Each structure stands twice: as structure tokens, then as C-alpha cells.
């Protein structure tokens, strides 16, 4: 993996309060938020760009329906005033959101993606980013998903959904690594500048 460039963007996907709703079911990676916070702290300390992506649903029963507390960002991952916020209505954060234009305007070529749901919005966004020519890294331990039933009714554990989604991405669209690996690069970079 290439070290994150000084303008590599951290994309934090859908870390809204609605993700804590029990109706979403059992999840994997219980420490994912801790890893996200570590990465966010490193990005802020190094002055790299942070993009917060918020899902605004068009489905009335959704935890992300406008005007509900579920739409709000989780307190530990609140955007700062100067950090970019993108709103989306579909899983892919690039679809009709202006994100690609915003990144190109700042000559950003590297994206580090964290958040939820691994096999939904994270995967959709990483696939688009890779297809659009960005150098995409998905941080495995800073993402999570939920148990999910397939079309035949078989229930698949969140751990399996997560692993298969990351494997799909690693084939053609993104690099997949752990938070510690990226944080080591960030730390080396800050020591080199200091």
C-alpha cells in the first residue's frame, strides 16, 4: 500500500445515529468506531481533508428519514466546521452528489474509506471510486455490517458479509488494510515534517 498523500481524503460513510438502531440487527467489528476515531484524529492532526457522508433516505420507514435523530452524525464523529459534508440518497456517495467534482477541484487522487455498511454504501462508494480512477483504500477494521438474509432466506453472519464484501473490493476496486497500517504511515509522515 502507498502511504496516504498529504491531501488523501478520509471518507467517513453514514456514521449517523440511525446505525445504532436495534432493528438493524447484530453487527460485526464492535471496535470499528474506535478505529474510525483514531483515523479521524490522525487526519485532523495532519491537516488532510475529511469528507463526512450522510445518507438521507427517501423511504419513510428508514432510520435515515429526514427530520429524525437517526439522520444526525454520531457525536464522536461530528464534522468540524471546515470539513466537507456530502448528502446522498443512494448507497453510492458519488451518485448525483458532487463528490467527484469536489475531489478533482482539490487534486485529490487518494481516498481512504471507513464507515457503514461494508457490503452496501462502503462497497458501492469504493467500487465507484476505483472505477473513476481514484486510488481507494478501504480500512477493514474501521467498517462494519449486519447479519443479512439472502434471497432463499438463509441468514449470513455479519462477519461473512464483511469478509466477502472486502474480498470483492480487493479484486479490482480498492486496497484493503487495517487502521494500524495507515496510522503508521501518517505518524512517519508527521515526524518527517516535524
Automatic annotation (TrEMBL):
Keywords: Hydrolase. The keyword Zinc-finger does not apply. SUPFAM superfamilies: Isochorismatase-like hydrolases. It comes from the Bacteria. Residues 8-177 form the Isochorismatase-like domain. Coiled coil: none annotated. Pfam families: Isochorismatase (PF00857). GO terms for molecular function: hydrolase activity. This is Cysteine hydrolase. It comes from Pseudomonas cedrina subsp. cedrina.
